[in-house]
Write a structure and sequence with these properties.
Largest sheet: 5 strands, mixed
Distance between the termini: 37 Å
Mean pLDDT: 76
Number of strands: 5
Strand content: 15-25%
Helix content: 25-40%
CATH topology: Mannitol-specific EII, Chain A
CATH superfamily: Mannitol-specific EII, Chain A
Radius of gyration: 15 Å
Number of helices: 5
Shape: globular
Structural class: alpha/beta
Low-confidence stretches: 127-145, 160-170
Oligomer: single chain
């Protein structure tokens, strides 16, 4: 089971959003929990954007999956992950389909992201786990923490029924 993801992901750092205006705003959205939690400096999302503008869309590690990160010296305070599901997807200009699962990483050293990427590959290489499935969070069954958090959010975000008193946000 991919342990680095579980160790580095605080439940409050997971969310589902409908859309992002463009890839730059998606990077800012994905990094917001890291900034708000003090895991990265406020400049971190802008550094990640500048890196992508210079080196190309290196965030997209597989269809539907983007690993948002910058270098440790570009504002990382301490190690952490944030997961954002963007239901309409984000086009990073990679030539791949839009990414719907954005994993923002704050790595304290140059090798930490390798461990997380290895864990993501292991998670995504499980049967049925090669893409973000709009129908449900089946891929998360191999990772109880993410399954519980993302699975619940996924179901809630796709449900037409809302708890009493709650209105659907458009």
């Amino acid at each position: 089971m991919p342990n680095h993801i579980q160790e580095m992901l605080a439940p409050e750092n997971v969310r589902v959003v409908e859309s992002a205006p463009d890839w730059r705003d998606a990077v800012r959205l994905a990094c917001r929990p890291l900034v708000d939690g003090g895991f990265v400096e406020p400049r971190y999302p802008e550094e990640a954007i500048a890196n992508a503008e210079k080196f190309g869309p290196y965030f997209v590690i597989a269809p539907d999956i983007a690993l948002i990160h910058a270098r440790p010296e570009q504002g990382v305070v301490r190690r952490q992950l944030a997961v954002t599901v963007v239901r309409q997807g984000v086009d990073f200009g990679s030539g791949k389909p839009p990414a719907r699962l954005l994993v923002a990483l704050a790595a304290e050293d140059p090798d930490s992201h390798i461990e997380v990427m290895r864990d993501l590959v292991a998670l995504l290489s499980t049967p049925g786990g090669r893409r973000v499935d709009r129908r449900g969070p089946d891929r998360w069954r191999h990772l109880p923490t993410l399954r519980g958090i993302v699975g619940r959010l996924w179901v809630e975000s796709h449900s037409t029924a809302r708890p009493r008193g709650e209105r659907r946000r458009e």
